[in-house]
């Protein structure tokens, strides 16, 4: 048969219905060539054919391992049929999608089309796929070919009333590259820690930051775990901190940081900043509102904050978090304040950011009177050289005036040449 005759025969098969023609004949006609397959699946077969096609193995090609994992080739019309059916028979389409094993049979085209199908699904069906997407690590399989960034925003909008499914989708989207996968610059910095580029367009950070109160702790677990993976990509160093900041947040004040606080996005560093902002925001919700319940605050801190790596950016984040409940974290704050004296050559790494000074303003009153006097004396001794004087002045200026003695104020004026603010 020529192509016109094939189309006419397909038209007749569709008109007669799935039970009127033998499976072998349908297979022979439809699979004659690519054009006949596409004509049947893209233009002719309707929802009446779904069960029959599935049960007779016509969709098996969708679940096969891809021949080439270095590029996406759109050559499977059966996937076009699933796309069309997603709005008419969403449950059946999802039932089939859940039978696909992306880990055992990775197929870039299949995952790509499935992700597009997800943008068309109702909430109850998308929720089922979101779990599959996370558990089978679709982001890892499709890697750099993931192009549905805006599609995830549609998905989060669909799941706006389902916090559990939103968290599953967030875990899937926030897939972090392994150390052997990242590309580094000549300076050792990581180009992009995430498998999905331009994450801010996905809406994942806003969804996590604004999740319902009952799901806030689970959201913090997800965000903190992801942040730990990202920061851990940094190269180890022998300085003050165990890990160097691959994504330095020198211009960030964690006391002021909010999700989406930067209007313009220039690099993946901005996505890391937003991820840190999510951890900050959720910590503020959970810890900052529960200071009267020390056991609860300690539990959340132990599970989510303690595991964060020992890096400068995480040190500054911790200073903010400890400042949320200074009475609960009085020991941490005291150790943090005195830490500046343990690294004479790198004291600016400990106290250089705004967080140290702001934490000092909030938490200095939790120190005993003896430790307060000891701290001030050490500041005056440590920062007495001309080059260090500005550090000493700024630090002492951060302490509430009423917590300093008249003698300390006089010594500070003599050392720094000006009255403390």
Give an overview in words.
The chain is mainly alpha-helical and 421 residues long. The protein contains 22 helices and no strands.
Summarize this structure as a short list of keywords or feature phrases:
421 residues; mainly alpha; 22 helices; 0% strand
Rg, Å, rounded:
29 Å
Broad structural category: mainly alpha
DSSP E strands, number: 0
Helix content: 55-70%
Q: Sheet with the most strands?
A: none
* Succession of helices and strands: HHHHHHHHHHHHHHHHHHHHHH
Strand content: under 5%
Q: What do the pLDDT scores average to?
A: 91
Q: Runs with pLDDT <50, length 5+?
A: none
Number of helices: 22
Offer a concise description of the structure.
Helix content is 55%, strand content 0%. The chain has 22 helices and no strands.
């Amino acid at each position: 048969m020529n192509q016109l005759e094939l189309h006419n025969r397909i038209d007749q098969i569709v008109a007669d219905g799935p039970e009127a023609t033998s499976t072998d004949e349908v297979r022979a006609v439809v699979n004659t060539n690519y054009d006949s397959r596409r004509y049947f699946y893209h233009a002719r077969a309707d929802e009446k054919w779904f069960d029959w096609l599935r049960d007779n193995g016509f969709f098996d090609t969708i679940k096969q391992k891809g021949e080439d994992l270095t590029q996406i080739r759109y050559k499977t019309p059966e996937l076009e049929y699933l796309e069309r059916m997603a709005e008419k028979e969403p449950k059946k389409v999802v039932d089939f999608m859940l039978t696909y094993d992306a880990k055992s049979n990775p197929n870039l085209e299949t995952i790509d089309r499935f992700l597009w199908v997800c943008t068309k699904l109702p909430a109850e069906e998308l929720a089922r796929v979101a779990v599959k997407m996370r558990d089978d690590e679709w982001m890892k399989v499709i890697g750099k070919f993931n192009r549905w960034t805006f599609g995830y925003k549609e998905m989060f909008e669909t799941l706006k009333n389902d916090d559990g499914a939103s968290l599953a989708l967030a875990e899937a989207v926030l897939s972090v590259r392994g150390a052997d996968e990242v590309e580094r610059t000549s300076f050792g910095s990581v180009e992009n820690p995430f498998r999905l580029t331009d994450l801010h367009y996905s809406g994942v950070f806003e969804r996590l930051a604004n999740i319902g109160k009952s799901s806030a702790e689970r959201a913090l677990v997800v965000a903190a775990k992801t942040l730990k993976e990202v920061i851990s990509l940094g190269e180890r160093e022998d300085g003050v901190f165990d890990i160097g900041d691959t994504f330095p947040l020198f211009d960030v004040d964690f006391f002021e940081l909010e999700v989406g606080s930067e209007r313009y996005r220039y690099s993946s560093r901005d996505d890391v900043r937003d991820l840190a902002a999510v951890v900050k925001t959720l910590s503020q919700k959970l810890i900052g509102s529960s200071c009267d319940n020390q056991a609860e605050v300690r539990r959340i801190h132990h599970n989510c904050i303690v595991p964060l790596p020992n890096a400068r950016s995480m040190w500054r984040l911790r200073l903010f978090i400890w400042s949320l409940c200074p009475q609960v974290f009085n020991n941490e704050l005291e150790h943090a304040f005195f830490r500046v004296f343990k690294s004479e050559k790198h004291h600016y790494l400990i106290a250089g950011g705004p967080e140290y000074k702001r934490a000092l303003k909030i938490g200095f009153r939790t120190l005993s009177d003896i430790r307060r006097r000891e701290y001030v004396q050490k500041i005056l001794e440590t920062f007495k050289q001309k080059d260090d004087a500005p550090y000493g002045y700024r630090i002492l200026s951060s302490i509430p005036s009423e917590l300093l003695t008249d003698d300390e104020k006089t010594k500070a004026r003599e050392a720094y040449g000006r009255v403390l603010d």
